Amino acid sequence: MAGIIRRLDETVVNRIAAGEVIQRPANAIKEMIENCLDARATNIQVTVKEGGLKLIQIQDNGTGIRKEDLEIVCERFTTSKLNKFEDLAAISTYGFRGEALASISHVAHVTITTKTSEGKCAYRANYCDGKLKAPPKPCAGNQGTQISVEDLFYNVSTRRKALKNPSEEYARIVEVVSRYAVHNSGKSFSVKKHGETVADVRTLANASTVDNIRAIFGNAVSRELIEVDIEEERLAFRLKGYISNANYSMKKCIFLLFINHRLVESNALKKVIETIYAAYLPKNTHPFLYLSLEIAPNNVDVNVHPTKHEVHFLHEDSIIEIVQKRIEEKLLGSNASRTYFTQVYAEKYYNNPLYFYRFIQSLFFKLHLFSILIIFYFCNFMEILSLSGLLETLDIDKPNQI
Ligand SMILES: Nc1ncnc2c1ncn2[C@@H]1O[C@H](COP(=O)(O)OP(=O)(O)OP(=O)(O)O)[C@@H](O)[C@H]1O
Ligand SMILES: [Mg+2]
């Protein structure tokens, strides 16, 4: 028997849609960071409680939201970034759907505090299920926006149960903030746990991309980076970034990929890159890569995934092929210089008679020290044995018994 088709209740529809856009706290943070960047913020601070499930607070110094817009800002399909569908082909902002804040407000309690440069004061407003709960209240505040998201998935118990590890969620949040921080040198980012004074990631506005990589991923990787800057007119793309050379490897691949400034994933590109590095790195070790691919906007479709973590672009295979070739050349170049360096180093030190003499001298010195230590420990050991009477039980002759 055929089932009866019914129209779903609007709140159910909205909650289902929200669950697709906001799958975990890190997605909410990504959407909100993109909103801050669209609002031309240069300072973005994230504070998190219980891996973002209890509280996410994000503060920026961007344009702010006009008081008149606070009424509809959390409704679905309300945006200041897109007018007509055709504009999507040349979109330069991260946002375009007017969907993110609405989604968040359908699965959490949202509070927005915001001030524009023209506004005399800031305004605070609370939202639930996309709706403003009461008229915005005037309050004190600096220019910019602070959004607090409390009790994420309070009304989606299955999702809440699935996300039971706050430290894992926090790690994902730190990963998202770190990646945006590297890609946005010239802007400062920070992320910390609520109540802590020290941030887990902090970048400064005057820091370069390499400074940010050093601050976030460590000194070891930042010393072994090769700069990449490739422009290809025929396919209308440009690739910029930093990749680790053949001297550096780690257990897990770190691959930061931005396509037209969007943090995305590309399994095809990742596979190609892993294959290139496999020829240079020890088995089961991987590289670090930060790549920013800029493609003519009309060749990119950004509207293919609810969390926007994937984009489709024209000539994908040809672009990946060229990227592969150029990265291979870069790596080969750096490896040749590494071999050269090793040769120079060997010639300078190992073939030098003075270096050889010093090396033998230090070896003898170490052997000498080692033998003194062995004698010392042996004497101590014998003394302990005699004190504990073990020598008698072992029936070892003593001088006074002779
Ligand atoms: N931090 C912010 N500063 C200034 N304006 C903001 C900020 N966050 C949101 N807005 C405003 O709220 C609107 C709705 O944001 P929301 O993220 O829901 O949609 P969007 O960014 O337009 O599109 P998308 O759903 O694709 O992200 C934005 O268009 C923007 O005008
Ligand atoms: Mg947005």
CATH structural architecture of the largest domain: 2-Layer Sandwich
CATH topology of the largest domain: Heat Shock Protein 90
Shape: globular
**Could you give a short account of the major beta sheet?**
9 strands, mixed
Please estimate the helix content: 25-40%
CATH homologous superfamily identity of the largest domain: Histidine kinase-like ATPase, C-terminal domain
Give the total of domains.
3
- Number of helical stretches of at least 4 residues: 11
Structural classification: alpha+beta
Family: Belongs to the DNA mismatch repair MutL/HexB family.
Pfam families: DNA_mis_repair (PF01119), HATPase_c_3 (PF13589)
GO molecular function: ATP binding; ATP hydrolysis activity; ATP-dependent DNA damage sensor activity; mismatched DNA binding
Subcellular location: Chromosome; Nucleus
